[in-house]
Fold this protein.
Amino acid sequence: MEKIIIEGGIPLRGEVSISGSKNAALPIIASSIMFDDSNNELYNVPNLQDIVTIKKLLISLNAEVKDSDDGKLFINTSTINNFDAPYDLVKTMRASVLVLGPLLAKYKRARVSLPGGCAIGARPIDFHLQALRALGASITMEHGYVEATAGKLKGAEIIFPIPSVTGTENIIMAATLAEGTTIIKNAAREPEIDDLILALCNGGANIKRVMPSVIVIKGVKKLNKLSHYIVSDRIEAGTYMVASAITQGDIIVKNVDLNHISSITDKLTEAGVKINVISPSSIRVKGPKIIKSVDISTAPFPYFPTDMQAQMMALMSIANGLCVITENIFENRFMHVAELRRLGADIKVCGNFAIVKGTGALLGTDVMATDLRASASLVLAGLASSKDYTSISRIYHLDRGYEAMEKKLSGLGAIISRVDDSNKTDYNDNEDYLTSQSMQSIASGIK
Ligand code: UD1
């Protein structure tokens, strides 16, 4: 089992380059199912476990997928002759449900496993299914699978009860090859959706965001070639901005889209972090000696993203003062609280509120990642923990969504390394925590 070990307390310095967005790449890769060309090309695809999963999913449908080290991905979906997204893949990544819309649009059939529960909440897909039914799909549930067929998909007016990111994406894709016009109201406004729209339109689709929350899709007969450069990852950018803030660092974050990170920039500025734009796609982020506590409330784009809540909580743990963090998107997204407390954070949870009393400093110890963004918050807390090592287990969560995080942080001067201690015998049977003795020996190996 791999772990990350961090010696904290070192101010970060230097430059870090942000990778392509995971949440943009996933729907765009899924959309390749709808394109006729046998050589679809994607660029700036991040090297992440979730991308491996979606590639495996396409391969399981009998698509041909070829990638190169430099973020290029070639996909031929003309060979698809299987329409099943199996449980084994969907359970490891809920976004696998993004193949439902494209399969239905192109092949008029799909069988996709229901994702089931998830660490951060129930995360149903009822909005996706209701909207697909409105487009004319017939959908049943059999043995934990969504079985969807459609003689013909026809445009319809869809009103989402609340904005859903992957729901909006699934319906955009299904409507792209449908007959007539689809109007999605209360559509999600996340920039990853606009990247998908751009990729589809460049291949022949007719889709417009006519108002911030209204998307109009005029169905077309076919899509030609998918050729697209994936937008940069605003959540990865925000995570490195916090990394600088939490270590009193001074770093340059490159390859960011400034329009996508303003809610994060605003909060960090309010907390006393100095942020200067130094080019259209790079910013300098300088952490102050003392971070001010600021209240945070998550909401759909353009407001503060739930995917940055855990990282900001790590920052608020060392701030001066008291703040309230409100999680409005997912019902169980405070799993990182117990682990941050192990590092010395003073956090109380009451329903969807977390009251964080800044302690000024954290102290390294063994912690365990529980989900993707929770693991990022532990890495950040580890960077801030003084005079000791933080050992983070279950880092496979981190690998789902952060490309080469240790390498990027090492490049900024952090003392961080990944160790594989699967041969160690001193585990507790039920936990993969290291004993303090083995942690010391691993820690001494990275000095
Ligand atoms: C996407 C992102 C995820 C991010 C989330 C919120 C991807 C691959 N993942 O997830 O990183 O945290 O947006 O910004 O892009 N809901 C329903 N029924 C549905 C669909 C959603 O009740 O059919 C609820 C959810 O439980 C949640 C809210 O709607 O409370 C928003 O979820 P949604 O935007 O759909 O999240 P995802 O698309 O799964």
